[in-house]
Amino acid sequence: MRTGADDEDQKIEEEQDSFNWMATKILKGVVTRYPTLDVFDEKIAHLTVVKKQISEMKQSVDIGWLRVNSVPLIKELEKTIDNWIKAHTEFLLHNTMRQIQNINQFITDISEGIKVVPKSNESEAEKAQLMAVMTHLRDVKMIKEKTLEQIDPMK
Amino acid sequence: MKKHQVKMDEDFLVTLETNKSQLKEVSEKALGPVKESILPLQNQEAQNIKGRLARFGVVVQEFRIKFQNTLPYHVAETSQEIIDGAYNMISAFYIETCKLEEEARELNNLETLFDLQRSSYKQLKDCKSELISLKEMWDLVALIDM
């Protein structure tokens, strides 16, 4: 007899399966464990503010008889901040590009895979073809919604 | 990325939109006309799979009964020979449980492919957790007997 706990277990397993199929198709080579886009946004915005503050610093400061030229320091700090901003944005860009490549590949695989549909399931070859088509249909069913959900935030 | 002025190919957004519509299009084709055209074959094959599932269900049930009747749940007396025997039995049943789990995974995959209700094979999960408890119990028995 199935219980509520069994149904809950099954839901978790199905969710895991769905993620596993995503992992083998759309998320191949894609980093999935990273902070949310909001956290990235916040960090990049913070670094941009710091960069602005640095650029507004005085280029020379007089301390008594000594004039300190802070241009090299400012330039060096700006370079460091730029590198940090670049590290964050490039990570997102590369990850997104990889995901787009995978989505393209997935679309091609499915389009090719469903072109020929078996007419019967008598021979072994036809059975294998049926299994291949069914696998593509399963992949579409499992992956489609989650993939579509991910496209808009990529912009 | 637009917000942070990340340099991207000019057609990046176009590519994304194209991907989105292509994915929708190919999905609709796959889950619509293609699925419909193979539905009779799918139903036939699903019947074969149901037969295989029923046979496997019996195998799992019989294995569970054999498991409960054979494995050393109780410790009446201990000696090195009894302890070794218990470990060997636990190992043998562990290997057999893993083989059945492998087959269960394969059948679960077929169930998903052919839109059948997924079987949970709770008996195998129970066997696995009891094997772990039994191993721990006999580890303690062996430790005390040393």
Q: In brief, what are we looking at here?
A:
By secondary structure, chain A is mainly alpha-helical. Helices cover 74% and strands 5% of the residues of chain A. Chain A contains four helices and two strands.
Report what the structure shows.
The complex is a heterodimer of chains A (155) and B (146). Helices cover 74% and strands 5% of the residues of chain A. Chain A has helices at 4-25, 37-55, 71-113, 124-154, and strands spanning 60-63, 66-69. In chain A, strands 1-2 form a two-stranded antiparallel sheet. The model of chain A has no long low-confidence stretch (mean pLDDT 83). Chain B has helices spanning 12-70, 80-113, 122-145. The mean pLDDT of chain B is 90. The longest helix of chain B has 59 residues, at 12-70. Chain B has one domain. Chains A and B meet through α1, α2, α3 and α4 of A and α1 of B.
Q: Which key terms come to mind for this protein?
A:
heterodimer; A: 155 residues; mainly alpha; B: 146 residues; 3 helices; 0% strand
SSE layout and pairings?
The complex is a heterodimer of chains A (155) and B (146).
Chain A: H1 4-25, H2 37-55, E1 60-63, E2 66-69, H3 71-113, H4 124-154
Antiparallel strand pairs in A: 1-2
Helix pairs in contact in A: 1-4, 2-3, 3-4
Chain B: H1 12-70, H2 80-113, H3 122-145
Helix pairs in contact in B: 1-2, 2-3
Q: Report Rg of chain B.
A: 26 Å
Count up the helices of chain B: 3
Number of beta strands of chain B: 0
What's the helix-strand series of chain B? HHH
By DSSP (H or I, 4+ residues per run), the number of helices of chain A equals: 4
Characterize the biggest β-sheet of chain A: 2 strands, antiparallel
